[in-house]
């Protein structure tokens, strides 16, 4: 965990993939859990100081959808069921004064093809949103074209804003056939130069590349840059570890 004594937020990211359900066609559905931590003075928050703030949630939603629409990405539709899941997670974090992801995300959210979560805290909506957008992994969650729905839950305790953003693409909105589902506990394949298929397209979309479905030199270089940003050697291939970091 890094510490920052200036007013600028710092971020700690953590990934978890919780296998539950499969995606249509070839891709395996992996739950993406990304944790953004805005560091500050760690003071315990009494339960009496915890207040749900709907206006704060609306601010996060507005900033999130502006980030998408300003880039030509469709806005996300707010779903009450996802809001409830997000609010419960924000409340848990505030009550425990501890930042962590929802270990039951993939069972709390129903009928999903893709599901993900950003969580964080900080002194204001703006500071947390900026922290998310300054983190490649969290920004990718916010700008992911595969997601169509969102639920945002926020709690304010002792001047600290706790937030959970739950993203979802429903299974029923899948444009490809759902008759050939394959149950896989985790992504076990390896994508290298010359690979083709839906998994390649998914990686290209995540990295903001043209989605050709062919793993060429451009894709390999983009993957290598992503790996190096994580402190890895950057070989440019996508195995289970890189996949889990991307998704």
Distance separating the two termini: 22 Å
Q: Report the helical percentage.
A: 25-40%
Number of strands: 6
**Averaged pLDDT, please?**
75
Percent of residues in β-strands: 15-25%
Shape estimate: elongated
Counting DSSP H or I runs of 4 or more residues, the number of helices is 8
Main sheet makeup: 6 strands, mixed
Instruction: Give the low-pLDDT segments.
Output: 1-50, 173-186
SSE pattern:
EEHEHHEHHEEHHH
Rg result: 18 Å
Describe this structure in words.
With 247 residues, the chain is an alpha/beta fold. Helix content is 34%, strand content 16%. It contains eight helices and six strands, in the order E-E-H-E-H-H-E-H-H-E-E-H-H-H. Strands 1, 2, 3, 4, 5 and 6 form a six-stranded mixed β-sheet that branches. Strand 5 and strand 6 form a beta hairpin. The protein is elongated. The N terminus is likely disordered.
Quickly describe the structure.
By secondary structure, the chain is of the alpha/beta class. The chain has helices spanning 54-69, 80-96, 105-108, 125-134, 136-143, 198-206, 217-229, 240-246; strands at residues 32-35, 50-52, 77-78, 112-122, 149-157, 160-170.
Give keywords.
6-stranded mixed sheet; 8 helices; 6 strands; 34% helix
Explain the layout of strands and helices:
Blueprint: E1 32-35, E2 50-52, H1 54-69, E3 77-78, H2 80-96, H3 105-108, E4 112-122, H4 125-134, H5 136-143, E5 149-157, E6 160-170, H6 198-206, H7 217-229, H8 240-246
Parallel strand pairs: 1-4, 3-5
Antiparallel strand pairs: 2-5, 4-6, 5-6
């Amino acid at each position: 965990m890094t510490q920052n004594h200036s007013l600028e937020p710092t971020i700690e990211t953590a990934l978890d993939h919780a296998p539950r359900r499969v995606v249509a066609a070839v891709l395996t559905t992996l739950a993406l859990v990304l944790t953004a931590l805005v560091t500050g003075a760690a003071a315990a928050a009494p339960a009496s100081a915890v207040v749900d703030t709907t206006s704060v949630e609306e601010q996060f939603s507005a900033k999130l959808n502006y980030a998408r629409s300003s880039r030509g990405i469709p806005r996300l539709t707010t779903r009450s069921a996802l809001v409830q899941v997000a609010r419960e997670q924000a409340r848990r974090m505030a009550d425990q004064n501890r930042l962590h992801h929802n270990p039951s995300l993939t069972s709390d959210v129903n009928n999903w093809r893709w599901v993900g979560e950003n969580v964080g805290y900080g002194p204001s909506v703006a500071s947390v949103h900026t922290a998310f957008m300054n983190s490649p992994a969290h920004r990718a969650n916010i700008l992911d074209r595969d997601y169509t729905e969102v639920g945002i839950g926020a709690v304010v305790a002792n001047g600290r804003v706790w937030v959970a953003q739950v993203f979802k693409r429903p299974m029923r909105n899948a444009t490809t056939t759902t008759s050939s589902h394959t149950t896989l506990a985790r992504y076990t394949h390896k994508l290298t130069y010359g690979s083709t298929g839906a998994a390649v397209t998914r990686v290209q979309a995540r990295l903001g590349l043209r989605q050709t479905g062919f793993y060429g030199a451009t894709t390999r270089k983009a993957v290598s840059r992503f790996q190096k940003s994580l402190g890895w050697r950057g070989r440019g291939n996508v195995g289970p570890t890189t996949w889990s970091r991307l998704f």
